[in-house]
Amino acid sequence: MADSLLELLSPHLQTPLSNDATTSQYLNRLSTLSLQNLQTTEPQSLAQSSHSTLLSLQALSNRSHRAFITSADNLSTLRSSIPQLTQEAQELRDAVPKLDEAAVGFSTKYSKITDNAALERRKKAMQLTRNVDRLSDILELPSLLSAAVSAASANSGAGAASTTYSSALDLYAHIKRLQTLYPDSALIRDVASQAEDAMKEMTTNLIAGLRGQNIRLAAGMRTVGWLRRVAPDLEILRSEGLSGTEEGALGAIFLICRLAHLVSTLEALDPLRELADQETQRRTNSKDSLGSWSGGQQTDRYLKRYIEIFREQSFAIVSLYKNIFAAEQSESGTASMGLRKSDSNVKSHDPLQNRPSALATFPMHLVQLLTETMRTYLPNVRDKSSRESLLTQLLYCAASLGRLGGDFGMILTELNGEGEMEYEWEEVMRKHRALAGRLEQLTSRVPVH
Questions:
Q1: Which sequence spans correspond to the domains of the chain?
Q2: What region, left, alpha or beta, does residue 155 occupy, with left being phi > 0 and alpha being psi -120 to 50 degrees?
Q3: Cβ(375)–Cβ(415) below 8 Å
Q4: Which of 60-74, 86-100, 342-356, 432-446 has the highest mean predicted lDDT (pLDDT)?
Q5: If you count Cβ atoms within 10 Å of the first and of the last residue's Cβ in the chain, which end, N or C, has fewer?
Q6: Pick from 224, 412, 208, 213: which is nearest to 322 by CA?
Q7: Whole-angstrom distance, CA of residue 373 vs CA of residue 412
Q8: Does the pTM exceed 0.70?
Q9: Which keywords appear in this protein's UniProt record, sorted alphabetically (predicted)?
């Protein structure tokens, strides 16, 4: 039907219609319309569609006229551009073999020349380009190490700090390995120098950690182990046999840090100590110190608290030291006995060469702190029961430290005063031993299951 209508309409149209799908669809639609619709509604519909299409074309022209102009210009030059592109591609293809021959000739000519500065610079630049990622990773090592050390010092948890310190030590070991592999590299030397600064900061943080409050055995052993890895120079004296101390300098550092913590803890009693100093001044200014003075209550409070802290902290310090360094001392002591025997025939005996360990003199220093305090403030206490309580507390402190080899009970006899202030040490010791004997009897009667 559409083909027949197309044949009938073609002679009456100025522009012949193409037999496409759109034309066929519209002719088929015309065949379904009545004569009245063809005369009335269809012209109006076509006019409305034509007007809508015209408006759309105008809007599109207004909106995209530049793109149309550019497309038209490019289309006009397309016929000349394609042959020109083909010609240039052919010229490039013909020039590639010549370029390859020139490159091969250049390489053959200058490959055996070693003193050409331009070639050396070119080789270094090419090598730097190939290894830029590796160099970037190496340059980031000091910043990563510093960040790890700072994060470990900021973390309060033992697990997080342990993991971060381990990562920092691994980074430092990697940097030292690079320094061993490339000793002549200025870049590696600079990176190693920055790493040394970070390790000094880490050493400072670890030593400060030994001064922490209520340090435990696991934390102390872990910190000392890290110090051995970070600062191996502290053990050079021991390894070379220049000192008789088996723990090296770490033992002395540990004791110094814990002593600093003990002193700072005792300094927290300064308000009580100031009251005791006031009582000392009033007793000294009294005309008859043995007769008219009857105070000492504030001094008694200060001394009781002082002895309590001293007993707890001194026992903890010596106990931690023995648990951390005892195994090393036993192993290195047996190994060094044979070395000293073999060297005794060669080297002359030097009494200043083998010094005692730090722990051998440390309890005496602690006792000196205690006895100086007691000698200064004990005369203020005039009440006999208070004096006996303090002396008994001192004996318990001496016995507590004596379990670790630091009994100083006999040294306390030097604290005797004069006249009525002379303390009855025999009576106090007798009571103390009697109480200890009864406790021993009670414990011996407990049945063992």
A1: 1-35, 249-339+353-445
A2: beta
A3: yes
A4: 86-100
A5: C
A6: 224
A7: 12
A8: no
A9: Golgi apparatus, Membrane, Protein transport, Transport
